[in-house]
Amino acid sequence: MSLTLSLAVLVTTLVVVAGIAAPAVVSYDPLEQNIIDRLQPPMFMPGGSSAHILGTDHLGRDVLARLVYGARIALAVGGLAVAVSALLGLVIALVGGYYGGAADALLMRLLDIQLSMPFMLLALAIVGIYGPSLGNIIIVLTITGWVVYARVVRAEVLSLRSREFVVACRSLGGSDVRIIVRHLLPNVVPSLVILAALEIGRMMLLESALSFLGLGIRPPNPSWGSMLADGRAYVASAWWLSTCPGLAVSFTVLSLNIIADRLRDALDSSLEV
User: Fold this and answer.
1) pLDDT digits (tens, 9 = 90+) for 98-142
2) Which of 31, 41, 220, 247 could bridge across to 45 with cysteines, CB 3.0–4.6 Å?
3) Which residue ranges make up each domain of the chain?
């Protein structure tokens, strides 16, 4: 295992463990305000204290505690959005790609309609109607994310449905359900896993962007994107408010992309010489 991959696995593991075991990792409540301790610098800076390792924000809340609990939200949104959109895209693509004809034409029209809709406009519409919440963010990301899986899986199904083992199974009386579940699905799973691994980082990044714009997690709940937004007014005087969540987003997404890239090399047989 290379040094780059080792560091990526380490960072990802730390984020996952911190998000799952947040109450055991930090002792502060991420929502607890203490105006007396507001804008305390990190402990490695003059005036800092070991009581607040990464300092406090403009309301006196512990930055490290909010980062750790923000990781929980980022992981939940990224994981759920990828799982739901991957399942939706997989089912639609398997059916449309296998049967072709009107089903496949309908699939392509749905793809065209979805791709023609700007992501931010769709997010504004859903959040404007139903309000910002964790569930609504997952709905937005699912609606915009399923097309990626559908296009990849459909292309593979169109190639696989005319292969000898599929034709042989059909000639022996195999049902459509059996062909799809026993023969097509196992062959598209590796590509689906690779794509899902790549999409987790993108979903986390989109969640942070929506929260930064006020369209994501409802304050005062901790989110890396909302922490970035809160720190904009204090960049000159309290740089750590924006730097800490910014680095958390950057390193987490970078680590996930590195792992996904190595996973692709391991699973994608088409890359083998």
Assistant:
1) 887 787 888 888 888 887 888 778 887 887 788 778 888 888 888
2) 41
3) 3-26+35-253
5 Cβ contact partners less than 8 Å away, ≥ 6 residues apart: 258, 259, 262
- What is the pTM assigned to this prediction? 0.84
Identify the H or E element spanning 67.
helix 63-99
Instruction: Tell me the DSSP string of 162-197.
Output: TSHHHHHHHHTT--HHHIIIIIIHHHHHHHHHHHHH
Number of H helices, E strands in the chain: 11, 0
**Which 3 state secondary structure label does DSSP give 30?**
coil
Taking a C-beta distance cutoff of 8 angstroms, is the pair 247, 169 a contact?
no
Looking at the predicted structure, is the pLDDT value of residue 84 above 50? yes
Burial of 231 (0-12, 13-18, 19+ CB in 10 A): buried
Element at 127 (helix H, strand E) = helix 119-130
pLDDT on residue 272: 46
Cis? peptide before 219, omega within 30° of 0: no
Q: 240-267 and 63-99 helices cross at what angle (nearest 10)? A: 30
Q: Which pLDDT tens digit goes with each residue over 187-216?
A: 888 888 888 888 898 888 888 888 888 888
H/E element, 108: helix 101-115
User: 143: which 2 tokens?
Assistant: 């609606």
Give per-residue pLDDT as tens, 141-164. Answer: 888 888 888 888 888 888 887 777
Task: Tell me how far apart the alpha carbons of residues 162 and 11 are, in angstroms, rounded to a whole number.
Answer: 43
